[in-house]
Amino acid sequence: MRDLLDQVEIWLKNGQSVALATVIKTWGSSPRPAGAGMAITETGEIAGSVSGGCVEGAVIDSAMQVLRTGQPERIHFGVGDDLAWEVGLSCGGEIDVYIRQFEHKNLEIWKRALSKTNSVYLALVLAGSGPYLGADLLLENSGSIFSDLSRKTRDQLTEIANKELAGGIHLIEAPEIQEAFFHKVQPVPELILVGGVHIAIPLASLAKTVGFEVTVIDPRRLFSTVDRFPDIKLLLTEWPEGAFQKISITESSAIVMLTHDPKIDDPALKIALNSSAFYVGALGSRKTHQKRIERLKDAGLSQSRLDQIHAPVGLDLGGKTPPEIALGIMAEILQVWYGRDM
């Protein structure tokens, strides 16, 4: 959804009516996960996708109907349906798609959710009464939610979110809402690179390509230049102790030490290991890392903290060049970010 909103905002500001199709359930080899979305305007312009291209035509037709009537639609595409063969899902995948009109009020709720530095849930109301049908309800860690909902409804929605369910459809026994799709919205992940060395250049580029914001820290002016790192979020020509006072480390931060210089890497590691960063890595061979561990133990870090370091950093893909090493590092970061860490 994050990649759709800029375009949707432009359409809405230009006075166009917009429908949003959301994948709310999948089975088998469906090409897009639950939560994937596609926006469609009244003139047939589209952004995003709900499949690999196989059901988009049918979804667009339904979206036009939704924009004409103002009534949401829920469509099932499955291998047993004639429509499935028509749209190309005969490979075995099945999906449920929910289509509703997407208005300024929905956009503002999504923008608020995406601005958070912590994960939040959005509940898309699939079955409910009055103005709630097709609405997006923002549930934050504090439990705050739309005040005009009944206490019973607020309690049930908050309970589901607090259980950290990964998402999906949930039945709700409440006056205003009977069914909702819960979508976990994570903040933009950030990669903090300590060391503007050669490997950092392709690594910063890869991180930006997959949606990470990038910060580079290096006290050495030769390495921390705008020419080497154009268009990153932040470039700090400072020692780690000072640099980390100027930035926030959150549960969406990955931090990688790249300098091989203990005067730079070690202080940064101490800060990173005592933070909420979801990933901490350090470049270097096993022998180099063992010496690093000994230094950090002498500095008072516990073994449990030190075990959090990914080192040698990155997946071993067999590559030796800086871009190949950067690819292995980014692959491991994504593996941890998506909960696939082995």
Could you explain how this protein is built, in words?
The protein is α/β, with parallel strands linked by helices and 342 residues long. Helix content is 33%, strand content 24%. The protein is built from eleven helices and 15 strands. It has helices at residues 2-13, 56-69, 82-87, 104-114, 151-162, 200-209, 240-243, 262-273, 286-298, 303-306, 322-337; strands spanning 18-27, 37-41, 46-48, 73-77, 94-102, 120-128, 136-139, 167-171, 177-185, 190-194, 213-217, 234-236, 253-257, 279-282, 309-310. The protein has a six-stranded parallel sheet with strand order 12-11-10-13-14-15, sandwiched between helices. The protein has a five-stranded antiparallel sheet with strand order 3-2-1-5-4, sandwiched between helices. It is elongated and about 65 Å long. The two termini are 28 Å apart.
